[in-house]
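Please check this record.
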Amino acid sequence: MHGRREAAGTVHPVPAQRFASLGRWVYRRRRLVVGLWLAAVIGLVPLAPRLQGVLASGGFVAQDSEAVQAGNMLYRWLPQRPRSELIVVAPDGDVADLRRTIAPLARFPHVVLPPGGPRIVRSRRGPAAYAAFPLDVDPDTARAYVERFRAALRPPPGFAVDVTGPPAVFEDIQLATSADLRRAESIGIPAALLVLALAFGTAVAAAIPLVVGGVAVLATLGLLWMLAHQVPLSIFVLNIATMLGLGVGVDYALLAVSRFREELGAGHDVEQSVVRTVETAGRAIAFSGLAVLIGLSGMWAFGLRVLSSIAAGGTLVVAVSAFAAVTLLPAILGMLGPRVERAPLLRRRRGRDRSGSSRGWERLARAVMARPWTFIVATLVVVGVLAAPVVSATINVARADVLPPRFGSRQGEQILDREFSQAALNPITVAVKPGTDLPPLVRRLAAVPGVARVARVQRGPRGSAIDLVLAVSPFTDAGRQVVDRIRALPGHGPRFLVTGETAGELDFLAQIEGRAPWAAAFVVLASYLVLALAFRSLLLPLKAIVMNSLSIAGAFGVLVWVFQDGHLDGVLGLTRLGYIESTMPVVIVCTLFGVSMDYEVFMLSRIAEAYRGGASNRDAVVTGLVATGRIITSAASILVVVGLSFTTADVVIVKELGLGLAIAIGLDATLIRSLLVPATMRVLGDWNWWPSGRRARLARDRLGVDPARRLL
């Protein structure tokens, strides 16, 4: 073991013998391993298509917040009070036609109408009109009735109506997300196959990573179906599981297949090649999977269903992908053996391709070593330009505008925004506890700046409700400031609580802001400790965290420029949002922090191996960049094309996620990993390895033993 050079991605603190034993066990029982995986897939694959049916929409609610607690109190105190609402909007506003259209809805399940039936409201600004239908079920439950509600409408010929409201928006997001996923898969999978074909040059070698990645995704979706019966999961779990499964799963398989082919090319038999692959690449995959899991686990800290669902889907698919890469993949390679080189796709010989690629990376490495400060400054300037829009970022909660204009729920919301007062449709509600003197409280509430009027007071034996119409839009910072003013009144907490959609959005954003520092601290500290253990350096982990932060800042700046400021609208098929959806920074930071750590580990492992083997810091950096440049570029290319395939989505949140990950990973694998990391390591010199530094290498030269290996 000690006399052999180790591959890129080797991580010393994990004993290699354990992975060698695993590789030997998998090879000798390869048919059993493949059979067990086949049985698991047969059992789980039928569940995967059923996952969408058990996922919940939304998840953009802080479940333990004041707004939710107050809403639940009102539902208990005033059972007749509606819990959600569907709204039928008529753009041309003909009252008689609208009345005929909605007539069948008077007896629709869960509709709670006043004695006179639904009230039709006409716009004073234009020809539009609407009729609201209160429901006695929550928005998630009401979503199941949206399509039946729409089908029950009977509009006269030529009379157009739209159905909107939170349940309709959630249902349309559900439908659009499912279509987005199919479209992204139809683009991302062939694109990933093309990258693999260019990387490997043979059809068999290129197909194996996609097969393993596909197995991981399908198995994960089946497992998520079972998990969704135990805990509620958001619809967005589908996108993250597929995106990460195809990206990370294929990346892991690419690393392992590359290593296996190298071992065969070195003259080893199939068993030796499998064992060596698991011993080296398998070890790197296990460590990289741990790094991704650490990053994704940061989303659990927020206590929000949408983020917890994404964390659940991401951690599960990464764990399954890593497990498949160290068990199923070696078993398949053991069964194929030299046949992995069959069906060549490229005429050039593999050895010539690799030598040409190595020479290119070596020229780049030598250029960076010769002028490190030039590359540092140039790279930081580019990243700074990309990140500059971050200073003007506006974070907001997703609404109907994340859907494309063709969806009826968004069209209806646009009409309501333009022709009516959203403040009247979305009042702030004060839940008043028993024993409180109502008239003085009503007067104080009416006098709060930003409150236009008291719309309704409902009294009950166990509590009361006061509905307040705002003088400003309820979905803006000005509307949320009114909630803050109400909560600042004497008696808030012991006597009354505040709820409503505006209060719910305020609590949601406050929970993200309040818990973000704790989540960031956990991810950074855990990543630092793992890297410090891996490389026995206190400075390298710190530098890695800074490098990752630069990639994230650059990607986030581009998202602000595109989605908030409205650039590239025609290219991406969207309209200017004016904000960044509130969960996207969290998802991108947590996901990228783990994924980009893969590339950090692959490169630094090889550099550390060369340095501790006696090379100078400069030569070690060159060796590491040359050895890992091609594999990192290929792996990142797969994640980039998978991410870009999701920019074809209809739901803006999915577009943001796909583009953000694609830009961040592309930036990380090119400017950051290929230029800035080696340049900064050249400048830091032996300080990279502090506190062990060159002392460990000199001790090895003097004693004939590497002291660091005694830690293994």
